[in-house]
Amino acid sequence: MTDRRTILAAGLAGLAALPFLRSFIEQPALAAGTTKFEYALTDAQWRAKLPGLAYDVLRHEATERPFTSPLNDEHRAGTFACKGCALPLFASRTKFDSGTGWPSFYAPLANAIGTTVDKSIPFMVRTEVHCRRCGGHLGHVFDDGPKPTGLRYCVNGAALTFSPAKA
Fold first, then answer.
1. 56/60 Cα distance (integer angstroms)
2. Which residues contact 165 (CB under 8 A, 6 or more apart)?
3. Where are the beta strands (DSSP E) in 61-136?
4. Is the dihedral of CA 126, 132, 136, 138 positive or negative?
5. 154 is known as an active-site residue
6. What one-character DSSP code corresponds to residue 31?
7. pLDDT class for 8, splitting at 50, 70, 90?
8. Is residue 141 a contact partner of residue 151, using CB atoms and an 8 Å limit?
9. CATH class of 29-164
10. In sequence order, which ranges of 72-136 are alpha helices (DSSP H)?
11. What is the strand order of the sheet 113-118 is part of?
12. How far apart are the C-alpha atoms of 105 and 94, rounded to whole Å?
């Protein structure tokens, strides 16, 4: 009887771990350095084009400190675009206050972003969000957002520009 319980417990633990283990086996949707983007610059050109933090975030996947971006408090109607290539990424109507300290959106504009599997933190698998046109790192997407999508695109404000809607 004890052996059956042990085997059953081990089997259930193994089943529970499958999604976690599978994520380590899956290949990322976009392997670094293997994809050509339609808007591409050399590292020196990116460094000259982007201010310090924007360069670090967009080109080297840095993260700005929470509650430091002025775009976190931007509530006007308009569009948020990639600071690297100016591709429109998010409509302001999809922005919400997640309380995390970074601009958060529940949906991107059509054909605006790409994703990759991010395993940069040991024992954690996240989905990285990047600009579809230039490959710039934007942030991550999580499944704890509001309706209608249930997603939270947690984006570094340093990676974005904002253009207010024309009246």
1. 5
2. 76, 77, 78, 79, 92
3. 78-82, 88-91, 95-96, 104-105, 113-118, 126-131
4. negative
5. yes
6. -
7. low
8. yes
9. mainly beta
10. none
11. 95-96, 104-105, 152-155, 137-142, 126-131, 113-118
12. 5
Domain ranges of the chain: 29-164
Q: How far is CA 59 from CA 38, 42, 143, 147, in A?
A: 15, 11, 25, 31
Q: In angstroms, rounded to a whole number, what is the distance separating the alpha carbons of residues 161 and 71?
A: 8
Which of these is catalytic: 82, 85, 134, 154?
154
Residue 1 pLDDT > 70, yes or no? no
Q: What is the mean pLDDT of the chain?
A: 85
Q: What is the pLDDT of residue 167?
A: 76
d(CA 130, CA 124) in angstroms, rounded, equals 19
Whole-angstrom Cα distance, residue 75 to residue 96? 9
Question: Would you call 167 helix, strand, or coil by DSSP?
Answer: coil
Structure tokens at 75: 């509530």
